[in-house]
């Protein structure tokens, strides 16, 4: 068995399985998704210290989180979300490299689908809840949830799912 066969594997008929490099469309989707996830993570780091871009924590709680100021998540929890978003960005970037051993690994593959599914559920659930007026969220939150938060989640989830789908291991 050659080193290349051990690295990439073989099919039942003995043909070597070599992953194709990611296409330009997949690389573009990965850059957009990883960039968006990284930017969202960086924004959560900022929010751990500041209500930017709003003037007060009360306004931030109402418009960005959809809760009363007393119910805002703690800074450590906000930093944890930032870390998860950073990890998701790393998964997308790694998964977009199917020719690498790590990019083909099952934890990365499972992570891509998990990120895609979680973002899709958040986005579609937010569109449904805010669009149908379900729950007791403030009007400012509903406005931005319909115009930015949920569509962004759906888009990032779709891009991540596209990367996962287009870089899966193909058998000849």
Compact description:
The protein is mainly alpha-helical and 172 residues long. The chain has helices at residues 3-8, 24-47, 57-65, 75-95, 101-104, 106-132, 139-166.
Strand content: under 5%
Euclidean distance between termini CA atoms: 19 Å
Which parts are unreliable, with pLDDT below 50 for 5 consecutive residues or more? 1-7
Strand pairing plus helix content: what structural class?
mainly alpha
Query: Could you say which overall geometry the principal axes of the C-alpha atoms support?
Result: elongated
Largest sheet: none
Instruction: Specify Rg, calculated over alpha carbons.
Output: 20 Å
* Mean pLDDT over the residues: 90
> What letter string, H or E per element, gives the SSE order?
HHHHHHH
**Oligomeric state of this protein:** single chain
Q: Helix content range of the residues, please?
A: 55-70%
Number of DSSP strand runs: 0
Number of helices: 7
Structure, described:
It is a single chain. The protein has 172 residues and is an all-alpha fold. Helices cover 69% and strands 0% of the residues. The chain has helices spanning 3-8, 24-47, 57-65, 75-95, 101-104, 106-132, 139-166. Helix 2 runs antiparallel to helix 7 (139-166) and helix 6 packs antiparallel against helix 7 (139-166). The longest helix is centred in the C-terminal third of the chain and has 28 residues, at 139-166.
Strand and helix map with partners:
Layout: H1 3-8, H2 24-47, H3 57-65, H4 75-95, H5 101-104, H6 106-132, H7 139-166
Helix pairs in contact: 2-4, 2-7, 3-7, 4-6, 6-7
Keywords:
mainly alpha, 172 residues
């Amino acid at each position: 068995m050659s080193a290349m066969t051990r690295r990439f594997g073989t099919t039942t008929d003995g043909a070597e399985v070599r992953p194709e490099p990611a296409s330009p469309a997949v690389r573009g989707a990965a850059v957009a998704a990883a960039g968006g996830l990284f930017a969202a993570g960086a924004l959560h780091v900022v929010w751990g210290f500041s209500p930017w871009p709003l003037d007060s924590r009360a306004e931030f709680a109402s418009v960005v989180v959809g809760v009363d100021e007393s119910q805002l998540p703690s800074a450590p929890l906000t930093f944890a979300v930032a870390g998860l978003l950073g990890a998701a960005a790393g998964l997308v970037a790694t998964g977009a490299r199917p020719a690498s051993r790590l990019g083909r690994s099952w934890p990365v593959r499972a992570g891509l689908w998990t990120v895609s599914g979680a973002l899709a559920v958040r986005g579609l659930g937010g569109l449904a809840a805010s669009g149908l007026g379900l729950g007791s969220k403030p009007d400012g939150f509903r406005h931005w949830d319909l115009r930015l938060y949920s569509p962004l989640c759906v888009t990032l989830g779709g891009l991540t799912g596209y990367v996962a789908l287009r870089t899966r291991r193909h058998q000849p």
